[in-house]
Design a protein that fits this description.
The protein has 16 helices and twelve strands. By secondary structure, it is an alpha/beta fold. The protein folds into four domains: 83 residues, no CATH class; 232 residues, TIM Barrel, CATH 3.20.20; 39 residues, no CATH class; 31 residues, no CATH class. The structure holds pyridoxal-5'-phosphate. The site of pyridoxal-5'-phosphate has 7 residues, from strand 1 and strand 2. Pyridoxal-5'-phosphate binds next to strand 1 and strand 2.
């Protein structure tokens, strides 16, 4: 990996003290937001300078000095630079692009809160990020105000969670929740912690990547008070794992915060099995469990970052079996239109008959598993009360998806609005009136 430049070698920050540099408030206040500042950190062509200006109307540019100092000044394909610096491609809106491809605003009972899956909600606490990633999926709102939400909106979302007993997992995101002051964050987390049915709070934050200075003793001792706490961060490339980010991760892990990582598969940045293997192995070495690799969404102006879905399958093919099982993330596509996250991966089942499943491993070796003979369908033991107990806790098991077919509740599933339904309905009416 290339050497990291000392920030003092960059004229813009020549006189910055160590104390300032390590202060996250200084980092936020001194983010790079103009071409003139950026030009003092990396070499930009005239064309690039013009483009940066033009893209700023689409998604704000703000780059922490820390993250900017990691950029290769001469290489446009530097992964740090690709994540942070606008390019002309962002102005290319493709026919398949959408403002809100995941329909997050549609599944929102309260503005800013998406309740799509049965037992967990996505809680957008701010539209501010310490740095705006050029591949942002929430470009429709990220950086709109570059500040925290008004308290009343946060309170409305907390009220919804309090009134909805089935919610046991709250995912704080945004924007980046760790851009809030520790006091404001604690206000939210403490209120969630008081709600008996909320079992876990998750932070979704890129701060360990783009502004590790934010992981202060003060923040971590607050987070530690409200266990269990999980944090999913957002490393995309091994170059982002620096001494400073490793210290931040260690501080979180030492204090019992469970760490995961979500990457986005990005063309020309990390769409390579070797880069991904290097990344996941370094993450595990730093006590971070690789959780997801996302297929790049259909948000507007990020088409140039997208890869085929096949690329993600190829990456998983290169990881599973080749390295530590828990270093292998799930590859998921958040299917547009609110369909939601769907895991995708290589096929390991080669064939089957009524007794045998033929499987292959990562080497291509093929074997078989013989299934038990003459099995009766399993039945619930009479003394088991788990379903009743869960129902009493508000976690009733709604019959959703294929589980309805497995349980025998229905024999088939079909879309609600098939043409033949309306034809059949019309025929029924005609017969009735005949
Ligand atoms: C991703 C997401 C979640 C969390 O999903 P997990 O698969 O449990 O990590 C929750 N709500 C929404 C709307 C999401 O997009």
């Amino acid at each position: 990996m290339p050497e990291i430049r000392s920030y003092r070698s960059i004229p813009l920050w020549r006189d910055v003290t160590e104390e300032q540099w390590n202060d996250w408030r200084w980092q936020i206040a001194h983010r790079i937001t103009t071409v003139e500042q950026l030009d003092q950190v990396i070499h930009l062509s005239d064309e690039e300078k013009e483009v940066v200006d033009r893209s700023l109307s689409l998604l704000r540019m703000a780059i922490t000095p820390y993250y900017a100092s990691l950029m290769d000044p001469d290489d446009r394909a530097c992964p740090i630079r690709m994540r942070a610096v606008p390019t002309v491609y962002e102005t290319d809106i493709r026919p398949e692009d959408e403002a809100d491809p995941l329909a997050e605003d549609v599944d929102s009972p309260v503005p800013g809160l998406t309740h799509r899956y049965p037992d967990r909600v996505l809680f957008l606490v701010t539209d501010q990020c310490s740095m705006y990633c050029r591949h942002c999926t929430r470009r429709r709102m990220a950086g709109e105000t570059d500040r925290a939400l008004p308290q009343s909106r946060v309170d409305d979302m907390i009220d919804y969670i309090r009134e909805t007993r089935g919610v046991r997992d709250v995912l704080l995101s945004g924007g980046d929740p760790l851009t809030l002051s520790t006091d404001r964050l604690e206000y939210i987390v403490a209120r969630l912690h008081e709600i008996p049915h909320v079992e876990i709070v998750r932070y979704g934050s890129a701060v360990p990547v783009v502004m590790p200075q934010r992981i202060t003793d003060e923040l971590v001792s607050m987070m530690k008070k409200y266990q269990p706490a999980w944090l999913n961060t957002h490393f995309n490339h091994p170059k982002e794992i620096t001494p400073a980010s490793r210290r931040a991760l260690a501080k979180l892990a030492d204090n019992g915060i469970v760490l995961g990582n979500q990457s986005v598969l990005l063309r020309g940045l990390n769409d390579c099995p070797i880069i991904m293997k290097e990344l996941v192995q370094r993450l595990v070495h730093n006590r971070v469990r690789p959780y997801y690799i996302y297929q790049c969404d259909l948000s507007q102006g990020i088409g140039h970052f997208r890869t085929s879905i096949g690329k993600g399958i190829e990456i998983i093919e290169h990881l599973w079996g080749h390295t530590t099982g828990f270093a292998v993330p799930r590859f998921v596509n958040d299917v547009p239109g609110g369909v939601g996250k769907t895991p995708i991966g290589p096929n390991y089942v080669v064939s089957r008959n009524d007794r045998m499943v033929i499987l292959r491993n990562y080497e291509g070796t093929i074997g078989r598993y013989i299934e038990p003979e003459g099995l009766e369908p399993s039945e619930c033991p009479e003394e088991c009360k788990l379903c009743d107990e869960r129902r009493e806790r508000g976690l009733d098991e709604p019959q959703i998806g294929l589980s309805q077919i497995f349980s025998g509740a229905v024999g088939a599933l079909e879309p609600a609005d098939l043409d033949r339904h309306s034809r059949n309905e019309a025929a029924r009416r005609r017969r009735k009136h005949a």
